[in-house]
Amino acid sequence: MDRFLSSAINRIDAKGRVSVPGHFRSVVQKRGFGDLYGLRALDVPAMDVGGTDLLERYESRMANEDPFLQTADDMSFFVHGDGAFMKLDQDGRITVSDFIREHTGITAEVAFVGRGLFFQMWEPERLKAHGAQVRERLLKLRQRASGAAAGSAE
Amino acid sequence: MDRFLSSAINRIDAKGRVSVPGHFRSVVQKRGFGDLYGLRALDVPAMDVGGTDLLERYESRMANEDPFLQTADDMSFFVHGDGAFMKLDQDGRITVSDFIREHTGITAEVAFVGRGLFFQMWEPERLKAHGAQVRERLLKLRQRASGAAAGSAE
DNA sequence: TGGGGCACCATGGGCGTCAACGGGAATGAT
DNA sequence: ATCATTCCCGTTGACGCCCATGGTGCCCCA
């Protein structure tokens, strides 16, 4: 398998390092990523982490914009400025910088979540809360759909 | 990687010097920039810093303007008159002049932000505020565009 | 089927290197 | 003479490299 799947929670040590789950590392290697590139997710307190192809995908998207309009500037600001290289050390660990902590609220533990072509880093409690929210939204969606069909009360 | 990516905050010392982040310096060297050229960003309180290609970028922007209109004249004034060379000393530091402080509000610390082909210098608090604005605009952009399903990193 | 051994992974910590930073001294400009 | 600029050196703290330990699951063999 060459995609990021499943999730795991690892602890940050006294030096601020955390092990990237072994399974994810093998995916990184299999896809030939040199360095990992992570950027702050737009609408959730998480880091989106992937290879340099993640970056290239954004850049090809930006190439379609007029470089002198604000949108292109915003995109560049977000992709280039709101991201950071996350170098794996020889044991497959990355250091959790303040840059990451600020956006995610991560302090002592990191929840890694596979997302296919990339993975995410969350503060475990926030991930849990987010998961509950998503679940609720999906549930409401379904209830509304079936309610409209049957005309039943909620 | 030969592009300016990620960000860092460095302190200004008693002599008014600040270290350019090591990663940025290696990019400068790799791209073969002799001197760094910095100019006041048009719509934000930041310095745009890069090699001579930065000048070309602005000049191509001016080429799109009618040379008889005031806009072109204003732009030329900005690009050619409102810029400054920023020489790196032996330790990779530059001096933060009043010219820079006036436009950016920088006093004690400088936030360096990678922007791909160039980088920016910000007063850290202002950068934070600007980042929040950008984030908001991009979020709106995405919400407007998403009739279809979209992952959080797309 | 149970047990020993092996491999892998998460975690902790020692240590060397380098970047950021502070400051002294020489040089140059006004 | 005074101030700003540049060179050079030392300090410090963060980070990368390396090794050790303990836990867990797997496999092989008795």
Secondary-structure map with pairings?
2 copies of one chain form a homodimer.
Chain A: E1 7-11, E2 17-19, H1 22-30, E3 36-40, E4 47-50, H2 52-62, H3 70-81, E5 83-86, E6 93-95, H4 98-104, E7 109-114, E8 119-122, H5 124-150
Antiparallel strand pairs in A: 1-7, 2-6, 3-4, 3-5, 4-8, 7-8
Helix pairs in contact in A: 2-3
The structure holds a DNA duplex (30 and 30 nucleotides).
Descriptors for this entry?
two-stranded antiparallel sheet, globular, 5 helices, 154 residues, homodimer, DNA-binding, 8 strands, alpha+beta, 6-stranded antiparallel sheet, Chemotaxis protein chec
Taking strands numbered 1, 2, ... along the chain, how are they ordered across the largest sheet of chain A? 1-7-8-4-3-5
Oligomer: homodimer
What is the C-level CATH assignment of chain A? Alpha Beta
Poorly predicted runs of chain A? none
* Secondary-structure-derived class of chain A: alpha+beta
CATH topology-level name of chain A: Chemotaxis protein chec
Radius of gyration of chain A: 18 Å
The assigned CATH architecture of chain A is: 3-Layer(aba) Sandwich
**Which percent bin holds the helix content of chain A?**
40-55%
Task: Kindly give the count of domains of chain A.
Answer: 1
Give the number of DSSP strands of chain A.
8
Overall description:
Two copies of one chain form a homodimer. With 154 residues, chain A is α+β, with helices and mostly antiparallel strands. Chain A has a single domain, classed as Transcriptional regulator MraZ domain (Chemotaxis protein chec). Chain A is built from five helices and eight strands. In chain A, the strands form two sheets. Chain A has a six-stranded antiparallel beta sheet. In chain A, helix 2 runs antiparallel to helix 3. The model of chain A has no long low-confidence stretch (mean pLDDT 90). Chain A binds a DNA duplex (30 and 30 nucleotides) through strand 2.
